[in-house]
């Protein structure tokens, strides 16, 4: 009977986990003894880093044929439950049929979701977001519909709630997307006293310059307390008329982490060792946004980002397969870190290192961001290349990758 590696999720970490596991299995000629299975709602990779852009419906990249050609089985469904003691998961099909699927090694790569605080009245009913393909498509449809409404402060004002990475990229993008609206007002609301609090002070002057150039208003130290169909209310009592409040403030790891008896961090990520294994459940690996793991020996943890997910996936897949094949596992390490932030028509800003030292800005940085978003993060078109690219050992670190990208776009 074949052993099974079951991977939950077809995001960046899930897809690269599958290719990496299958790569090692093929190298050892063990295709008849170990099967790789991916479970996800759709046979597609949602290009989540681009969901702030226009044409969101085009950002689901099909991977079904690619997985099949690589010898990886795809099961379309949503995992409702993980039974770690029984080594099974319950998968629900689109028609509602629940199947029990057994595994020998499980890789949890189900990503994360935006956190909508229940204490904010009306947020669930009236707030938009760009966290998933469906929600990004919903927002885009709403934005297109605005043009058919009578001009008013509520129609012409877009409020982005959250001045972190996603909020800044979305707020920077909107003036270009909605340039046909004569009285457009884009407001970026952030609870902290600085824009991009997690991004640090390095790129902040560049971000502020870009937002000012684009005409984006910034309200700092402003917590949202209520969202309605016609506006939002801030903790200060200020009311902003808007029919479009977009929530980007904070994410949490998949709720499936709560079904695994293990330590979690404040973002609900599972604490894992450097092999990405859950210490209390040796047959379970967590990767991508579901994993809390050190990226280096200086206490820097991997971020919830595709940059980290693409290597985390490669390592988790390799280690799950190595574990079954009685081979040495590979410790995860990603010491180099780079950040590329889109700033709309103004350009972009690129930083290097955990201290986020600014390296490139403006139009050149925009070319880098465009290359990353439109080419680099997509999987290849053929299975043989995908298998070859899944090697975690040869995957370039951030510094080398940055130099390769600059050489490509310059």
From TrEMBL:
**Domain FAD/NAD(P)-binding, first and last residues per copy:** 4-310
Q: Where is the signal peptide?
A: none
Which UniProt keyword terms apply here? FAD, Flavoprotein, NAD, Oxidoreductase
- Asked if the record carries the keyword Iron, the reply is no
**UniProt xrefs under InterPro entries:** FAD/NAD-bd_sf, FAD/NAD-binding_dom, NDH-2
Which molecular function GO terms apply here?
NADH dehydrogenase activity
Family named by the database record? Belongs to the NADH dehydrogenase family.
Q: What is this protein called?
A: FAD/NAD(P)-binding domain-containing protein
């Amino acid at each position: 009977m074949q052993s099974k590696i079951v991977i939950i999720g077809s995001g960046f970490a899930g897809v690269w986990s599958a290719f990496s596991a299958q790569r090692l299995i093929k190298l050892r000629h063990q295709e008849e003894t170990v099967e790789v299975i991916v479970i996800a709602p759709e046979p597609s990779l949602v290009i989540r880093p681009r969901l702030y852009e226009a044409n969101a419906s085009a950002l689901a990249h099909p991977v079904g044929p690619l997985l099949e050609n690589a010898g990886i089985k795809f099961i379309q469904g949503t995992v409702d439950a993980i039974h770690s003691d029984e080594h099974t998961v319950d998968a629900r099909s689109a028609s509602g049929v629940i199947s029990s699927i057994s595994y020998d090694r499980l890789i949890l790569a189900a990503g994360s979701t935006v956190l909508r605080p229940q204490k904010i009245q009306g947020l669930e009913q009236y707030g938009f977001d760009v966290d998933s393909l469906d929600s990004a498509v919903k927002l885009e449809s709403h934005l297109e519909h605005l043009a058919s409404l009578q001009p008013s402060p509520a129609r012409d004002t877009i409020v982005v709630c959250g001045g972190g990475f996603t909020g800044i990229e979305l707020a920077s993008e909107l003036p270009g997307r909605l340039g046909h609206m004569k009285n457009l007002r884009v407001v970026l609301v952030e609870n902290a006293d600085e824009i991009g609090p997690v991004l640090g002070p390095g790129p902040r002057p560049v971000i502020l310059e870009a937002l000012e150039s684009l005409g984006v208003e910034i309200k700092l130290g402003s917590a949202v307390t209520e969202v309605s169909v016609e506006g939002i209310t801030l903790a200060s009592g200020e009311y902003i008329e808007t029919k479009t409040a977009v929530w980007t403030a904070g994410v949490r790891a998949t709720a499936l982490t709560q079904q695994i008896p293990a330590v979690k961090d404040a973002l609900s990520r599972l604490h894992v060792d450097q092999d990405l294994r859950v210490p209390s459940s040796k047959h379970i690996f967590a990767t991508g946004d579901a994993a809390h793991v050190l990226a280096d020996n200086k206490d820097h943890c991997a971020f919830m980002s595709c940059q980290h997910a693409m290597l985390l996936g490669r390592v988790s897949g390799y280690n799950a397969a190595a574990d079954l094949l009685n081979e040495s596992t590979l410790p995860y390490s990603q010491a180099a870190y780079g950040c590329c932030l889109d700033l709309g028509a103004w350009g972009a800003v690129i930083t290097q290192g955990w201290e986020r030292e600014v390296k490139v800005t403006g139009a050149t940085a925009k070319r880098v961001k465009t290359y990353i978003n439109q080419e680099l993060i997509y999987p290849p078109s053929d299975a043989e290349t995908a298998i070859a690219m899944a090697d975690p050992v040869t995957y370039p670190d951030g510094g080398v990758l940055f130099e390769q990208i600059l050489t490509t776009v310059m």
